[in-house]
Structures are given as structure tokens and as C-alpha cells.
TrEMBL record:
UniProt protein name: Histidine phosphatase family protein
Keywords assigned by UniProt, alphabetized: Hydrolase
Entry EC no(s): 3.1.3.-
Gene3D superfamilies: Phosphoglycerate mutase-like
Enzyme class: hydrolase
Organism: Streptomyces incanus
CDD domains linked: HP_PGM_like
Coiled coil: none
One of the record's GO molecular function terms: hydrolase activity
Length: 225
């Protein structure tokens, strides 16, 4: 019998029909500059606010039951746009922050390649790498996935949880919840700003229903490229 990251057994043949929507924050200036943000607290641009407002209108139509969010400004301000439409007050949790990436934070993509090319290449191969001396992707999943599961467990049957977070944290959380080997997490493409992925609850656990939804395909700007 399979077991969830929270130690819950899968395979009982029962499903409460819950959904988890993992929503990436809107655009920041560092996204546009292809500068690695990590846990640096960078604000949304005017475009990012507009993206959040547009996406919130779509997500409000799904009638979410609860919102949780990273406490970093770019995620908290994105969540606030959904609060304005639904009245749901988000629970902010630092466990949903983006990967801490040490000396990589604040560097552009080109600067990372130039200074830490071997480290970057190893990460892209799926090897466990402490980018910039920071967190492993499995450590990010260790802190974020249990928070998502805990709040999902509070949902009513057929309920919907919106998780407002960051590209890297969302990818690792999805990988953990659907049971992918960490070496294959990189096969989950990055999320465009203010797009989302949807996990649905099935009889055998969580499964990925949609990925990078919410817009026509656009370049991914951020920490996952």
C-alpha cells in the first residue's frame, strides 16, 4: 500500500474529491531581469499586480474554500487579489517560501552560469545540489508539502485549497505529493508568473490534473529557468 508524505495510507479506494491549486505569484522586476530571487523579499511590478488581478477573477470562479500563502510580499500581494474577490483570509506560512539559494540570490541567470556553471548543470541533471550553498530541493519539499497536506485535510469533501507560492517550491511540492522520484522533479516545467497547477484527489492519492494553466504559453521568467 502506498503512503503519502504525511504518513497517510493510499489505496483504500476512497476519495474525498478535494483539489489543491498551486498558484505562482505575479511578475517582479527580478523576474524580468532573470535574477534569482530565492527567499529575497521582492515586490510585484505593476504588471505583476495586473496579472494577479486577472488570475484571481478566474480562480474565484472555482469557489475556493481556503487560501494559504508564502509570507513573502510577492506571494502575499498575489493572494490579496483573491481575498478581495472571495473574502477568504489567507494563512501565511514561511514554510511556503521559495528555495533559499545562498550566494545565487540576486545574481542573473548569465552570472550564475558564468560563476557556478558546474553546479547549475548538475542541478539540471536532477542531482541533489545546494544551489549557492542553500537548500536542497528535497528540503524545500520537506517543509512545504506537509503544510499543504495539513490544510488540504481541513477541506470539506470536494473542497478546494489555493496555495500561493513560488515556482521552485510549487514544483518540489507537486513532485512530492504525486510521488515522483526527486531526480525527475526537473521534468515538471516551470510555471509562468501567475499561472497555476491543479492536484486532484483520487483513490490512490494526489494526481496532477493541470500544469501551468491560466494563460497561453509564455516564457517562464524566474528561478526555474
Amino acid at each position: 500500500m502506498a503512503v503519502s508524505p504525511a504518513g497517510e495510507a493510499f489505496g483504500s479506494g476512497k476519495s474525498r474529491g478535494r483539489r489543491v491549486i498551486l498558484w505562482r505569484h505575479g511578475q517582479t522586476a527580478w523576474n524580468v531581469e532573470r535574477r534569482f530571487q530565492g527567499s529575497t523579499d521582492v515586490e510585484l511590478t505593476g504588471t505583476g499586480v495586473a496579472q494577479a488581478r486577472r488570475a484571481a477573477r478566474l480562480l474565484a470562479g472555482l469557489k475556493p474554500d481556503a487560501i494559504i500563502a508564502s509570507d513573502l510580499k510577492r506571494a502575499a500581494d498575489t493572494a490579496a487579489e483573491l481575498t478581495a474577490l472571495t473574502g477568504l483570509q489567507p494563512v501565511h506560512d514561511e514554510a511556503l517560501r521559495e528555495t533559499y539559494a545562498g550566494v545565487w540570490q540576486g545574481l542573473t541567470h548569465d552570472e550564475i552560469i558564468a560563476r557556478y556553471g558546474d553546479e547549475y548543470t548538475a542541478w539540471k541533471r536532477g542531482e541533489p545540489v545546494r544551489r549557492g550553498g542553500g537548500e536542497l530541493e528535497t528540503e524545500v519539499a520537506d517543509r512545504a508539502a506537509p503544510v499543504v497536506l495539513r490544510h488540504a485535510d481541513k477541506l470539506p469533501d470536494d473542497g478546494t485549497l489555493v496555495v500561493v507560492s513560488h515556482g521552485g517550491t510549487i514544483r518540489t511540492t507537486i513532485g512530492r505529493l504525486i510521488g515522483l522520484d526527486p531526480r525527475s522533479w526537473e521534468s515538471l516545467g516551470g510555471l509562468t508568473n501567475c499561472c497555476w497547477s491543479v492536484l486532484g484527489e483520487g483513490a490512490l492519492g494526489w494526481r496532477l490534473l493541470e500544469h501551468n494553466a491560466g494563460t497561453l504559453p509564455e516564457p517562464v521568467l524566474g528561478d526555474d529557468d
